[in-house]
C-alpha cells in the first residue's frame, strides 16, 4: 500500500484595496465588515489611529493601514474590516479603514511567494494571481500595528521587477 502525500489546504483570504494596491488578509482573523461611519478622534493618539466608533456597544479603534504601510494614494475609504478580539491580544476591538473590498478567495500555498518580501515583518508573502500580485498582510495584527511598517508599496514594486 502506497502512502499519498497530502497537499496543504488553501487559505481563504479577503482581498481589499488601499490606494492603488491590492492586499489580502486571512479571513479567519476577521470578525466583521462594516460600512465606514462617523469616527471620534482621540487627542494625542498615534498617526495611524483614525479614531474610535461604537459598534454594537463596543468601542472599536479604527486604524488607517495606509499610514502604517506608508501608502500615499487616496481612496474612497468605504469599509472597515474589524478583527476578531482574540487576534488582538487584549488590545480591544480594532478595525482597519480600507478603500474598498473585492472578494473572498482561496489561496493555495504554492501561489504564495515568500522570497519577495523585504524583511518579512507584517507580510506573509506575495500572492501570485492571474494578472496581478496581492500583498498578503500577516495574520498577527498586533505585529502589524506595533512594528515600524516597511514600505509595502516599495516591496510590491520590487516583486513586480
Automatic annotation (TrEMBL):
SMART domains: CheW. PROSITE patterns: CHEW. Residues 10-150 form the CheW-like domain. InterPro entries: CheW (IPR039315), CheW-like_dom_sf (IPR036061), CheW-lke_dom (IPR002545). PANTHER family: CHEMOTAXIS PROTEIN CHEW (PTHR22617:SF23), CHEMOTAXIS SENSOR HISTIDINE KINASE-RELATED (PTHR22617). This is Chemotaxis protein CheW. It comes from Halorubrum ezzemoulense.
Amino acid at each position: 500500500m502506497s502512502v499519498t502525500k497530502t497537499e496543504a489546504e488553501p487559505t481563504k483570504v479577503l482581498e481589499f484595496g488601499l490606494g492603488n494596491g491590492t492586499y489580502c488578509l486571512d479571513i479567519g482573523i476577521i470578525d466583521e465588515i462594516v460600512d465606514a461611519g462617523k469616527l471620534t478622534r482621540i487627542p494625542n493618539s498615534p498617526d495611524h489611529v483614525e479614531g474610535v466608533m461604537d459598534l454594537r456597544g463596543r468601542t472599536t479603534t479604527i486604524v488607517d493601514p495606509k499610514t502604517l504601510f506608508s501608502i500615499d494614494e487616496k481612496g474612497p475609504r468605504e469599509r472597515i474590516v474589524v478583527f476578531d478580539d482574540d487576534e488582538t491580544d487584549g488590545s480591544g476591538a480594532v478595525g482597519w479603514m480600507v478603500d474598498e473590498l473585492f472578494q473572498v478567495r482561496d489561496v493555495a500555498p504554492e501561489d504564495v511567494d515568500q522570497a519577495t518580501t523585504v524583511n518579512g515583518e507584517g507580510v506573509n508573502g506575495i500572492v501570485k494571481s492571474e494578472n496581478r500580485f496581492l500583498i498578503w498582510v500577516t495574520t498577527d495584527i498586533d505585529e502589524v500595528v506595533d512594528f515600524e511598517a516597511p514600505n509595502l508599496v516599495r516591496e510590491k514594486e520590487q516583486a513586480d521587477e
